[in-house]
């Protein structure tokens, strides 16, 4: 759905040697790679390990674009090592393979992709990543959140601070404490919203974290 914004720039991008990949069937102009067609044609069998294993774990795995709070969005380099370290996120905050994680954060962001989703789908049994069930919602809805939690058996919620504020600002409902949520983990939760959230919705453990896509240090508030 974003291709229309890129299409007028295609001649300039070609001159600069920039490849354009689109996840969709198209049709697209010449020079644009339609990834869905390649995915459909690809074999289900894994290539030999020496083909896809990185030579150096400090090599670039992917780029995450910052939100642009200090200027235009910038591509932050994320190494293979950092990506693998993110697999331990849920184990660090106390989740396990029996949990059901509710995720409504965008998957183009580090919190949603590397911390939210990737630890839940380890490629093989791992001591680092517990693996768990993920309830992946395309768009967060404060009015439907607790209904979703009850319907899906949600036990862990990954948030950014505003999501909790949206929930606290909702009109009170008799059934809003009838849920199995035991852990909320995320970033940017204000102290007043933190207190209101727990007073209103029950003794949910909250683990606040802070990190940056381009940083090399992460903080965890284990003490609450």
Automatic annotation (TrEMBL):
<dbReference type="InterPro" id="IPR000873">
    <property type="entry name" value="AMP-dep_synth/lig_dom"/>
</dbReference>
<dbReference type="GO" id="GO:0004467">
    <property type="term" value="F:long-chain fatty acid-CoA ligase activity"/>
</dbReference>
<comment type="similarity">
    <text>Belongs to the ATP-dependent AMP-binding enzyme family.</text>
</comment>
<dbReference type="InterPro" id="IPR042099">
    <property type="entry name" value="ANL_N_sf"/>
</dbReference>
<keyword id="KW-0436">Ligase</keyword>
<feature type="domain" description="AMP-dependent synthetase/ligase">
    <location>
        <begin position="48"/>
        <end position="218"/>
    </location>
</feature>
<dbReference type="GO" id="GO:0005789">
    <property type="term" value="C:endoplasmic reticulum membrane"/>
</dbReference>
<dbReference type="InterPro" id="IPR020845">
    <property type="entry name" value="AMP-binding_CS"/>
</dbReference>
<keyword id="KW-0443">Lipid metabolism</keyword>
<dbReference type="Pfam" id="PF00501">
    <property type="entry name" value="AMP-binding"/>
</dbReference>
<dbReference type="GO" id="GO:0005886">
    <property type="term" value="C:plasma membrane"/>
</dbReference>
<protein>
    <recommendedName>
        <fullName>Long-chain-fatty-acid--CoA ligase</fullName>
    </recommendedName>
</protein>
